[in-house]
């Protein structure tokens, strides 16, 4: 009965960020920040982040989910406790710690159908892992829901080589960017072609035709330099991000330091993160923070798609600054890794140890990777491997698992046809070198950017990435647009399956109990709304996927 609902949880930001009303200053609630030893209780509650109230899936009773922080080298033990009760949404859950390699702890990756079964209602699971030498900006979300389960995660490096560039780097400088929907994901999953109702910055925003609800304010002091950690938490939308009157110096992409690069605007796709240094060098005032989505007729009218940069001493009013055309937008090809910048392997196209070519097609809203649409296996891939399956022909889902030999350089070329781009492609378990960016004809093996989410561009474009298979286990490679993932845009990279058991040593306590608990659930206990939600989808659009076959099923 194990049915995959590939929704990478919903758009959130951290409750620890400096969120304020338009009329009342607000100080940072440091108590909302969690450490590496924490409990995430997943439950339901009605909220109205843009003025429209709806039921959502929350972490620890708040939206957005609390920021998780750690120091480089810390060990993590994070319990995910499922207390979901709203049957209109999925009642099972999972949490993926995006960007963490999980080397030796594949069972802690939190990827439904690949590394585990979902956590059933009234059950829990503890993710125990070490981030080893990783530091930077990460986040956590569900691969089983797109209704609110999202939060930021930062691992601080006390020896950051770029620390000389900024004065402030704390919970107040984490900025989350997300889209927000008034209908549940269990309704929208049936609609072919969704557009969000609002953009949220640090969990607040406005929708067209809605009330003048509160906007987030990011408080700064004149003369100081701030490391803003931008986290793209969308289900779908990508954003053009800028701050009126201020340049930004990019110093990190997806947990990897970059050579400093000055820009005045950057595009951030679902799943991507950037650290930018912003100097508060303008007159004391309020300045618009802009996050324009790639949706139809998006604008900044009425404070939509916006937040406020508020200097200390400025009145608590909305800005009057004017949007100007970008003259120095971020180009991915101008980003270069700061440490060990060369891509692995022989520096020429097609000269890696393993050369893969994935062609993605969108046919009537269903995605096919090399002519196969990903569907959930009845048993997670990791469980199949630990049970003895080693070859691609033995691993399910058939045609969607690529077995890779250990310690080899892989070069992956991915191209797309059909609508829906640009597609943000994420590989679990690794960062990779982007040797060719989508829409660019040149290759860079000398000093490309290294990251874990890259744009595959739009129809007719391709991107090329490289990584080394030094992390045994099954790792998901997928589009980070939830609706695309849910309709087949994914494959599994199974690295050295014969070594996975020895590399992991043993699975975490309770891991092998997740599937029996989930498989025992009735349709009502699964949630998802069934035919009622399909009828609700029909009220939104006439372009629909097929209905569920069993009332209440997912």
Described by strand count, sense and barrel closure, the largest sheet is:
6 strands, mixed
What topology, given as strand order, has the largest sheet? 10-9-12-17-14-15
Structural class: mainly beta
> Whole-number average pLDDT?
92
> Which parts are unreliable, with pLDDT below 50 for 5 consecutive residues or more?
1-30, 550-554
| Helicity, as a percent range | under 10%
Number of strands: 30
Percent strand equals: 25-35%
Oligomer: single chain
Shape: globular
What does this structure look like?
This protein has 554 residues and is mostly beta strands. It is 8% helix and 32% strand. The chain is built from 7 helices and 30 strands. The protein has a 6-stranded mixed beta sheet, with no helix packed on it. A 6-stranded mixed beta sheet has the order 21-20-23-28-25-26, with no helix packed on it. It has a 5-stranded mixed beta sheet with strand order 11-19-18-13-16, with no helix packed on it. The termini are close together. The model is unreliable at 1-30 and 550-554 (pLDDT under 50).
Write the layout of secondary structure elements.
Blueprint: E1 37-47, E2 54-59, E3 68-71, E4 75-82, E5 96-98, E6 124-130, E7 136-141, E8 150-156, E9 174-180, H1 185-188, E10 198-201, E11 217-220, E12 225-232, E13 239-243, E14 248-253, E15 256-263, E16 266-268, E17 273-279, E18 286-293, E19 306-311, E20 354-363, E21 366-369, H2 381-386, E22 401-404, E23 409-417, E24 424-427, E25 432-436, E26 450-451, E27 453-455, E28 462-468, E29 473-479, H3 482-486, E30 490-495, H4 497-504, H5 514-519, H6 523-526, H7 530-540
Parallel strand pairs: 1-4, 3-8, 9-12, 11-19, 20-23, 22-30
Antiparallel strand pairs: 1-2, 4-6, 5-7, 7-8, 9-10, 12-17, 13-16, 13-18, 14-15, 14-17, 18-19, 20-21, 23-28, 24-27, 24-29, 25-26, 25-28, 29-30
């Amino acid at each position: 009965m194990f049915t995959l609902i590939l929704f990478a949880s919903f758009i959130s930001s951290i409750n620890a960020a400096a969120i304020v009303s338009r009329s009342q200053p607000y100080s940072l609630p440091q108590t909302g920040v969690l450490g590496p030893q924490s409990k995430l209780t997943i439950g339901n509650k009605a909220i109205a982040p843009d003025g429209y109230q709806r039921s959502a899936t929350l972490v620890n009773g708040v939206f957005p989910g609390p920021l998780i922080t750690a120091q480089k080298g810390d060990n993590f033990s994070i319990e995910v406790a499922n207390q979901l009760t709203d049957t209109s949404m999925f009642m099972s859950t999972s949490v993926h710690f995006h960007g963490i390699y999980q080397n030796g702890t594949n069972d802690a990756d939190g990827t439904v159908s690949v590394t585990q079964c979902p956590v059933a209602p009234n059950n829990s699971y503890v993710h125990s892992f070490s981030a080893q030498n990783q530091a930077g900006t990460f986040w956590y979300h569900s691969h089983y829901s797109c209704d609110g389960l999202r939060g930021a995660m930062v691992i601080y490096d006390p020896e950051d080589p770029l620390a000389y560039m900024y004065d402030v780097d704390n919970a107040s400088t984490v900025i989350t960017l997300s889209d927000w929907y008034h209908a549940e994901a269990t309704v929208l999953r049936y609609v072919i072609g969704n557009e969000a109702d609002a953009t949220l910055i640090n969990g607040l925003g406005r929708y067209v035709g809605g009330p003048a609800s509160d906007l987030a304010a990011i408080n700064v002091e004149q003369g100081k330099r701030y490391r803003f950690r931008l986290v793209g938490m969308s289900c779908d939308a990508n954003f053009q991000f800028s701050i009126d009157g201020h340049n930004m110096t990019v110093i990190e992409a997806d947990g990897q330091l970059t050579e400093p690069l000055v820009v005045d605007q950057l595009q951030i796709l679902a799943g991507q993160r950037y650290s930018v240094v912003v100097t508060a060098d303008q007159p004391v005032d309020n300045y618009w923070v802009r996050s324009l989505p790639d949706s139809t007729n998006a604008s900044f009218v009425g404070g939509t798609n916006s937040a406020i940069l508020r200097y200390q001493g400025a009145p608590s009013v909305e800005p009057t600054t004017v949007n100007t055309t970008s003259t120095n937008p971020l180009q991915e090809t101008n980003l270069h890794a700061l440490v060990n910048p060369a891509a692995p392997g022989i520096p020429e196209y097609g000269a890696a140890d393993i050369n893969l070519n994935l062609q993605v097609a969108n046919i009537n809203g269903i995605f096919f990777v090399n002519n196969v649409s990903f569907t959930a296996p009845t048993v997670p891939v990791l469980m199949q491997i630990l049970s003895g399956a080693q070859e691609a022909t033995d691993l399910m889902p058939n045609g969607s698992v690529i077995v890779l030999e250990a310690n080899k350089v892989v070069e992956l070329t991915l191209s797309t046809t059909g609508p829906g781009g640009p597609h943000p492609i994420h590989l679990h378990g690794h960062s990779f070198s982007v040797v060719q960016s989508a829409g660019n004809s040149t290759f860079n093996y000398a000093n490309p950017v290294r990251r874990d989410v890259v744009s595959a561009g739009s129809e007719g474009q391709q991107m090329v990435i490289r990584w080394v298979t030094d992390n045994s286990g099954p790792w998901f490679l997928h589009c980070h647009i939830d609706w695309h993932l849910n309709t087949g845009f994914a494959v599994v990279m199974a690295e050295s399956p014969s070594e996975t058991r020895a590399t992991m040593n043993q699975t975490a306590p309770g891991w092998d109990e997740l599937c029996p608990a989930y498989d025992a659930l009735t349709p009502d206990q699964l949630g998802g709304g069934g035919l009622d939600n399909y009828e609700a989808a029909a009220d939104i659009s006439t372009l629909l996927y097929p209905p569920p076959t069993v009332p209440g099923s997912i």
